[in-house]
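Hey, quick one: can you model this chain's 3D structure?
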Amino acid sequence: MSASPPQIPWNADHAAALVARCVALEGPLLPALHAIQATFGCVPDDAVPIIAQVLNLSRADVHGVLTFYHDFRRAPAGRRILKFCVAEACQARGSAAAIAQVERVLGLKVGETRSDGAVTLEAVYCLGLCASGPAALLDGDPFARLKGACLDRLLTQVLT
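Sure thing. Here's the predicted structure for all 160 residues.
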């Protein structure tokens, strides 16, 4: 399963219309950020002043929320998204070594997207698979016990 590509290219007028649909909601900022990301594949820097203006917030408020939540992207993600758990339980079960292998094989570091746009590698801070770590999500699907052959199979799946 591949991550969904942006549905349309960035368009400031369309972004403003998306945000305007959220104005009447209680706490409209998060729904507005989600709507922009779902539509354009990320929340680009150009969206911040639009959101601030439409919702009558400061740019600092919008930027603060955008950068606080790890699931919001400021640049488009790769076609595949690999989220690797770095919480304490997975660390105790060897996630650092697994992540180092993933970085070597994919040719990128956590927080980066390959230059060919094939995959984005991200850290997450608990997937609830603590007893079976190291764990990861590939395009939302969980994988556990990621050592040896299991990790090799996941990497093969990422690259296909």
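One thing worth noting: The first strand starts at residue 80 and ends at 85.
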